[in-house]
Amino acid sequence: MGIGTQIVLQDAVNGLLLGGVYAAVAVGFSLVWGVLNVVNLAHGALVMLGAYATYWFAASGHLDPLATLPVVGYALFLFGYGLQRFVINRVIGTSFLVTFLLTFGLQLLITNLALAWWTADVRSVTTAYSGWALTVGAVVVPAVRLVGAGAAVLMAAALAAIMRWTQFGMAVQATALDREAARLMGIPVARIYARTFALAAATAGMAGGLISLSFPIFPAMGTGYTLVAFVVCVLGGLGSVAGAVVGGFLLGLAQTFASAWVGPNYNNIVAFSALILMLVVRPAGLFGRAGHFRG
Amino acid sequence: MAEPTAGTSLTRAAEGLIAIVLVLLLAFIPLVASTYLIRILTGIFLFVALASAWNLIGGYAGYADFGPTAFLGIGAYTTGILMTQAHMPFPLALAAGGLCAMGAAAGIGAVLLRLRGHYFAIASLGFMLVMEQVAANLEITGGGSGMNLPVARGFTPFYYWMLTLALAAIGTGALVPRLRAGYALGAIRGNQEAAQVVGVRPLPYKVLAYVGSALFFALAGGVYAYWFTFIDPPTVFDPDFGIQAIVMVLFGGAGTVLGPAGGAIVLKSLDILLTNTSGLLHNVFFGGLICVLVLFAPRGLVELLRAGRRHLPDRRRLQRSGAG
Question: What is the CATH topology of the domain spanning A3-281?
Answer without folding.
Answer: ABC transporter involved in vitamin B12 uptake, BtuC (1.10.3470)
